[in-house]
Design goal:
single chain; 352 residues; mainly beta; Jelly Rolls; 2 domains; eight-stranded mixed sheet; 28 strands; globular; binds copper (II) ion
C-alpha cells in the first residue's frame, strides 16, 4: 500500500519525508516565463532514478531531495497546472515515477494553520494532464514570492532511468485581466493536526471510527471547492458547524468491499451563490469517518479536507509569524534536507 497515497488534485500538503541523511544535491531549477501563453515553467533535473528498493510489506522511499527554492517570476493569478515527466530526449516518462511533488510558498501562511502554504501538489495516483480552476477565480501570486519544490521519485518497476526531468507548467491569468479573478487560496483542513503538520497520522480500530479537529478561521470568506484525502477504511470527510452540529459539506469516498479508497470526488460549492460561508472566529470541526472491516487496527491513517477558500478581504490574510513554534517546526522539517536556489535562464535549458 502506498502510504503516501494522496489527493488526486490540487493544492495538497504532504510530509517532506525528511528522514534521509544524505540526499544527493540536485542541479538548479530552471525557471522560464512563457509570456505568449501566460505560463511559467519550472523544470527540475536531470535526476538519476534508480530502481527503488522494496521490502516485503513496506515501501522504501527514494531519498528525499532538498527543497529547491526559486523566486516566483511574475505577478498574476494561478489558475491551474500540469506536471510533465520526460527524459533527456524530451520523451514522456510515466507519471507514476513521481511519488509526489509539492510546491511550498515560503511567503504565505496556510488558511487555518500557521504553517507555510502548500500551493499545489501531485502524487503518483493523481490525475495526469491539466488541472484547471474556473477562470473567474485565481490564486494571487506576486513576482519575488519565495517558493520551493520538493519531490520524490519512486521507480518500482525498473529499469533505472539515467536522466529524468520533471516540469511544472503553471497556467497564469494576466495581472491586467478585467474583471479581475476572485482571490482564492488553498484551504487545508486536517482531522488530526497536533503539534506540527508532519504529525497527522492516527490509528483506526476495527469497526466504526470518527476523528475530528476543531478550529476557527482567522478571517471570513467562502469555500468554493472541496475534495478530500482519506486512507483506506475512510468513508468520508466532512465539515461541521461545531456550535449546531450541522454538517456543512461532506465528501464521500468511493470504496471497494474491503474498504480500499478508490477515489474521492471534487465538489464545486459555488455553482449557485457564493459557496459555503465561513465566519472568522466561529468554531468548525473537520471530521474523518472510518469503517474498518478488518479485525485489526489500521495504522498510520490520514484524513483531510482540502479546498479553495475565497477570503472576503485578501488583505486580511494573516502573515507568517516567525516566532510561532508551529511555523518554526514546519520550516525546520521542510529544510531538513537542505535547500538549493535556482536561476532564471529564460528559454533554452532542458529538452522539451
Ligand atoms: Cu495520506
Amino acid at each position: 500500500m502506498r502510504h503516501f497515497a494522496l489527493l488526486a488534485s490540487l493544492l495538497i500538503p504532504v510530509r517532506a519525508a525528511a528522514q534521509q541523511p544524505h540526499p544527493p544535491v540536485p542541479p538548479p531549477l530552471h525557471v522560464e516565463v512563457d509570456s505568449a501563453h501566460r505560463r511559467v515553467l519550472i523544470t527540475g533535473g536531470p535526476y538519476r532514478v534508480p530502481v527503488s528498493q522494496e521490502m516485503p510489506g513496506m515501501m522504501m522511499d527514494m531519498p528525499a531531495t532538498p527543497v529547491q527554492k526559486f523566486a516566483f517570476p511574475v505577478d498574476g493569478w494561478l489558475q491551474g497546472f500540469r506536471i510533465d515527466l520526460f527524459d533527456d530526449h524530451g520523451h514522456v516518462l510515466p507519471h507514476r515515477l513521481l511519488h509526489h511533488l509539492i510546491v511550498v510558498n515560503f511567503s504565505r501562511r496556510q488558511f487555518i494553520y500557521p504553517a507555510l502554504e502548500r500551493l499545489l501538489g501531485t502524487a503518483e495516483e493523481s490525475d495526469t494532464g491539466d488541472i484547471r480552476i474556473p477562470r473567474s477565480i485565481g490564486v494571487p501570486m506576486r513576482a519575488g514570492q519565495d517558493l520551493g519544490v520538493y519531490a520524490m521519485w519512486h521507480n518500482d518497476t525498473g529499469p533505472e532511468i539515467p536522466v529524468a526531468y520533471w516540469r511544472i507548467v503553471l497556467f497564469m491569468a494576466n495581472r491586467t485581466l478585467r474583471p479581475r479573478p476572485i482571490d482564492v487560496l488553498p484551504a487545508y483542513m486536517d482531522v488530526n493536526i497536533q503539534t506540527n503538520p508532519e504529525e497527522n497520522r492516527f490509528n483506526v480500530p476495527p469497526g466504526h471510527f470518527e476523528i475530528g479537529y476543531e478550529f476557527s478561521p482567522p478571517l471570513s470568506g467562502h469555500l468554493l471547492m472541496v475534495t478530500g484525502h482519506l486512507h483506506d477504511c475512510g468513508t468520508l470527510v466532512k465539515l461541521v458547524d461545531a456550535a449546531s452540529g450541522k454538517t456543512l459539506v461532506q465528501v464521500n469516498a468511493r470504496r471497494d468491499s474491503l474498504g480500499h479508497v478508490l477515489s474521492i470526488p471534487r465538489k464545486l460549492l459555488a455553482i449557485r451563490g457564493e459557496g459555503l460561508h465561513l465566519k472568522a472566529g466561529h468554531r468548525y470541526r473537520v471530521v474523518g469517518v472510518f469503517d474498518n472491516p478488518a479485525r485489526d487496527t489500521s495504522y498510520g491513517a490520514m484524513a483531510e479536507m482540502v479546498g479553495l477558500f475565497a477570503p472576503d478581504h485578501y488583505r486580511e490574510w494573516p502573515a507568517l509569524d516567525p516566532a510561532d513554534p508551529y511555523y518554526h517546526r514546519d520550516l525546520v522539517d521542510l529544510l531538513a534536507n537542505g535547500a538549493t536556489d535556482s536561476v532564471i535562464v529564460g528559454s533554452g535549458g532542458p529538452p522539451r
